[in-house]
Amino acid sequence: MRSRLAFLLSFMALALSASLAHAQSTGATAPPVAATPAPQISAEQENKIRDSVKNAKVDHVAKLPIPLTVGAEVPRNLHFYPFPKEVAEIAPEYGSYFYVVAAEKIVVIDPLSYRIVAILPV
Predict the structure, then answer these.
(1) Model pTM score
(2) Residue 53: its H or E element
(3) 83-118: pLDDT as tens digits
(4) Largest CB tally within 10 Å, which of 15, 23, 43, 74?
(5) What sign results for the dihedral spanned by CA atoms 52, 55, 57, 63?
(6) Would you give the DSSP letter of residue 37?
(7) Are 95 and 88 within 8 A, CB to CB?
(8) Taking a C-beta distance cutoff of 8 angstroms, is the pair 115, 73 a contact?
(9) What is the distance between the alpha carbons of residues 66 and 82, in angstroms, rounded to a whole number?
């Protein structure tokens, strides 16, 4: 009985190592990180964020070739910007996100997953 169990465990370990080696040799990658929706903010916070973005001294208007919906992945070559410092003071929960202005909307992007997590009107 013990030898059967040892054989079974050895076989499982061998099968697992073979599948890992195959994944590495074929260039298989981990699935992309899913973006979680941005935390809800108050209307007052949203207005302050909008004012802060409008006053930013960057060329941040973009044409996005994708539908502007939460969860959509933005192109990897899109140049987006970190929010101005004031945004972290207004809404700390938005401090780790980036943005771009497109179609007269502030598109909030998770820089790790390249997914839209919120859309705010300009």
Answers:
(1) 0.67
(2) helix 43-55
(3) 988 998 999 988 899 999 888 899 999 999 999 999
(4) 74
(5) positive
(6) P
(7) yes
(8) yes
(9) 21
Question: What is the rounded CA–CA span in Å between residue 98 and residue 100?
Answer: 7
* Beta strand 115-121 pairing with 105-110: antiparallel
Residues in the chain: 122
Are 62 and 102 spatial neighbours (Cβ–Cβ below 8 Å)? yes
Sign, CA dihedral 99-66-34-39, equals positive
Rounded alpha-carbon distances, angstroms, from residue 43 to 5, 36, 46, 71, 84 = 62, 21, 5, 22, 18
| Phi–psi pair at 97, nearest 5 degrees | -95, 160
Question: What is the Cα–Cα distance from 21 to 46, expressed in whole angstroms?
Answer: 49
